[in-house]
Amino acid sequence: MDTLVLWDIDLTLVDYTGLGRKWYSEALANVVDKELAHLPEFPGRTERSLARELLKAHGVRHDDEQVERVLTELEAIGLATRPSLPSLGRVLDGAAEILGALESRGGVVQSLVTGNLPNLAVYKLAAFDLDRHVDLEIGGYGSLSDHRHDLVEAAMAQASAKHGVTFTASSVVVIGDTPMDVAAGRHHGTVTVGVATGRHSVDQLADAGADAVLSDLTDTPAVLAALLR
Predict the structure, then answer these.
(1) Does the pLDDT at position 40 exceed 90?
(2) Residue 98 to residue 74: CA distance in whole angstroms
């Protein structure tokens, strides 16, 4: 195996705008009987950090036990919503094509570094049959840590263990739509690729230090060139 490509999900591969607010509003009401009055900034964050901020902002206990209760509730809400996900979101242009193109190449492993919880990541991708392109067992997920760079470290370690090779930083590509995605990869010295399909511009992603920045994923050869340099 030559290259490990670690994908972000939301606003990189798929768009479920507004769903996070709905899910967190329901979780807050169900866990602590509070009405949503503060919504954290989502881009680039992990579910663990979002849940902690949400609880703290609403004046309730925000220790690890309480955070776990919120995460468990989010999983339950996501499962209940799963049948409706195809109508609540969309695949971003070019996402299916580039995932398929990478899958067909030798020496490439695709997985995730996403702020989503593991099951929510599966549900969001499976709604559009994108899950079959990535190895979900070796991803870095938002249940792990408040800090996104810990997710990159976990994914690299799991991929190396599963494939019996060491994926060094120079052989790992972290791709996402936020400066936090870029920073998480840069923390470990990986190749970083920004894609301006979310709330951050090409210039903002370049300023964050991305090795390459794409306006979107529609030009498959250009995306391949950026990822497999």
Answers:
(1) no
(2) 30
pTM exceeds 0.90 for this model: yes
pLDDT digits (tens, 9 = 90+) for 174-211: 999 999 999 999 999 999 999 999 999 999 999 999 99
Q: Report residue 107: phi and psi, to 5°.
A: 80, 15
Q: Whole-angstrom Cα distance, residue 138 to residue 91? A: 22
For residue 152, give the amino acid letter. V
Query: Dihedral angle at the C-alpha atoms of 225, 116, 104, 211, nearest 10 degrees?
Result: 10
Mark whether 104 and 186 lie in a shared domain: yes
Q: Mean pLDDT of all residues in the chain?
A: 96
Asked if the model's pLDDT at residue 229 lies above 70, the reply is: yes
Instruction: Indicate the number of domains in the chain.
Output: 2
For 103, what's the count of Cα atoms within 13 Å in the CB-facing half-sphere? 13
What does residue 9 show for φ and ψ, rounded to 5 degrees?
-105, -65
* Phi, psi angle pair for 195, to nearest 5°: -130, 120
Residues 9 and 23 both lie in one domain: no
- Give CA 41 to chain center in angstroms: 15
**Same domain for 37 and 148?**
no
Within 8 A by CB and 6+ apart from 168, the residues are none
User: Which residues have C-beta within 8 Å of that of residue 169, sequence separation ≥ 6?
Assistant: 156, 188, 189, 190
> Where does the chain have alpha helices with state H?
19-32, 47-57, 64-81, 85-88, 95-103, 118-126, 148-163, 179-187, 202-207, 220-227
Q: Is 80 exceeded by the pLDDT of residue 90?
A: yes
